[in-house]
Amino acid sequence: MRIQTAGTPKVMRNLNEFLILDQIIGGGPQSRADLSRYTGLSKPTVSSAIAHLIERGLVRETGRAENTQGRKATLVEFNPKCFYTLGAEVGGSGLRIALADMGGEICYYKQLAMPEGGLTETVCQDFLVQSIEGLLADSGISREKLRAAAFGIPGVVDPADGSVSDLVAPLRGCEAVLARANLARLIPVPVVTENDVNLAALAEYTSSGMAASGSLLYFSIGAGTGGGLIIHGEIYRGLGGGAGELANLMLSAGRLEDVLSTDGLRQLANRMAKEYTGAGDTAHLLSTPGGTAAQIWDAVRRGEPLALAIIEAYCNLLAEAVGSICTVMAPTTVVLGGELGSHGDILLERLESRLGGLHRKPRLAASSHGDKDVVLGAVQTAVQLAFREMRA
Amino acid sequence: MRIQTAGTPKVMRNLNEFLILDQIIGGGPQSRADLSRYTGLSKPTVSSAIAHLIERGLVRETGRAENTQGRKATLVEFNPKCFYTLGAEVGGSGLRIALADMGGEICYYKQLAMPEGGLTETVCQDFLVQSIEGLLADSGISREKLRAAAFGIPGVVDPADGSVSDLVAPLRGCEAVLARANLARLIPVPVVTENDVNLAALAEYTSSGMAASGSLLYFSIGAGTGGGLIIHGEIYRGLGGGAGELANLMLSAGRLEDVLSTDGLRQLANRMAKEYTGAGDTAHLLSTPGGTAAQIWDAVRRGEPLALAIIEAYCNLLAEAVGSICTVMAPTTVVLGGELGSHGDILLERLESRLGGLHRKPRLAASSHGDKDVVLGAVQTAVQLAFREMRA
DNA sequence: ATATATAGTTAATTAAGTTTACTAACTTAA
DNA sequence: TTAAGTTAGTAAACTTAATTAACTATATAT
């Protein structure tokens, strides 16, 4: 148990209140007597703390226990609706925003396309503000009840000051709008900005329910590639936010992002289709450079030989990448996200079998929340922030 | 400020005492008035805490300040000799043990060759016990003053229970002896066991004085290769202790350990010497398989062309390895250790120039403590452990 | 009905903080 | 030399929030 602040009686009282609150949140509805046993605090102290927590609205009585003997206990439970938080994903093509309660449950959610045409600073800012205002109005949640916000940003975020750089192309120029300082001015509650893939990784880490000693790599592959790392239970960013920026990793077939992105898959498909001498209708797999790689996955599910061969080749490359990363990092879990995450049914077992040679084989999984990963991570971060503000 | 335990008055008092102690350790000799200002605690509270710390022997008065005005302050300072700790490196060929004070300063140090012949369990255990007994006797430090011990082990250590596996060849069979539970029975103080390279990484991390947000990779290359990672200020072990086990990383020229170990360097030298058509006395570089690679470094320092060419080729491989690792991990600092660390004068600038293409270029350094890295890391870990025990 | 067990409150005590006011000791300058 | 001003450290009174012990309230079992 470390401390940074001086321990005054008031601080101690606050500490004990949150010790009790944590126990209630973690252990569900409990009686005062239970809480006294679990925390080691005396019954009067627990009662007094509960009274204050009820007064603050964080906790409420919720019926009685069915004991075998003795007086029935009054149970108290966490009131997740005491406050709300905002979690958002500012994507290159779309905005997702969610209002969640303090239990992390999303109460109101909206997905919006970004404004067409040139995304200037003012357009971007106005769009953000109006979207958030709109969601708040729809939900009927009062401003005072909103306590924190977190934004997932497709770019590099400086953890020190929340400033933003290296945004994806469609958002370029909006760095100043998405900086933490600016967002906090607009909303105005405590705000964090964080790289989108890092938030996705956090969401998967939490929902996996793994121990704090475990680590997780979120490997996002779509139009581009990215990685998010959770180590010691928190986001590991690395020098200049570069941890998990896997795009530049060299594989035997070339640069990771060139080889494994949807564009890389398309090129691989084109090459293999040209070499393919067997019969059958394979022309539709030769998608044009501007097209998508979606047909390949459909073809695999239909069992077409060429598509299967392409995917086998692709998985060789994917396994090489994951293998290298695991040799360096040894994550407990690797989660596939982005475009790829949605094809876990095809990829996971192929990848699994190819990683047999690895000394420490991680648990493999596909993203369990799909394209909502980032928003969920943002919500979770916002909830954490709101709690931290209350504790302080 | 988090808390796991209930906040009783006694706990609060202890917390405040250690808050003050930390400030004294971090800030050097200070007056009670200074401490009151820095910690935010009132002067009477500080005075009372200091009285208790002096009574416990952790702190002592140390003269008076030279103020410009007013009454001269009595300074108090940390007394590092209040307790002692043991740090050890159990190597394949030798044992290093150190007795250090609570300031981490090594007071007594001994380096011993492991017993010749078959290293059975009993031989290993007796040797350990006698070595430690001997050092304690030499130092004249009483058993009661010894408060913790840490052992660096060349193998995989399970952080959960401190058990040991995959020991290097010479120590194989001594797993049970080096397990934490057994060592704690022998000494008997709180004991930690930890992988040796991880401890070396910790030693470098601490002595570099970097911020907690920084991360460090200790890249040890000798007869074998190993890596230690410090992330969020603590050792990151990864799944099954596999983080930083770089040996199996595939480079363009083959498996990392095969290519970069002293043996790999020797093979590279042999290959290049055979191809070498130039004149000059190069025969001595063709060392026999049982020899060492040491001649190459000497030859480089003498400026011999073949040796220089070999090192250039070797650095290409080294840069490929470090580059891959940095792309995944983005450590703030990379430290070269083991055999290689001692040739930083030759390697560092060559490596530096080859990493120019890297997006996030880490600080490069050679091990600053050489072959004492592990013992220093062990001492530091033991000191931390001793403090943790006192706080609890 | 009575005994026993459990939940939660009240009252007295204790620990450790704070503030306020003091004494002690030192420097500067009339 | 003496008075004024400044800083260090202590003493006393007060405040907060913990504890224990005793009590009340409410349940089940015999």
Automatic annotation (TrEMBL), chains A, B:
SUPFAM superfamilies assigned to the protein according to its UniProt record, in alphabetical order: Actin-like ATPase domain, Winged helix' DNA-binding domain
Protein known as: NBD/HSP70 family sugar kinase
Annotated keywords: Carbohydrate metabolism, Kinase, Transferase, Xylose metabolism
Function of the molecule: Transcriptional repressor of xylose-utilizing enzymes.
Gene3D superfamilies: 3.30.420.40, Winged helix-like DNA-binding domain superfamily/Winged helix DNA-binding domain (1.10.10.10)
Protein family membership: Belongs to the ROK (NagC/XylR) family.
Organism: Paenibacillus silagei
Domain HTH marR-type: 15-62
Molecular-function GO terms, alphabetical: kinase activity
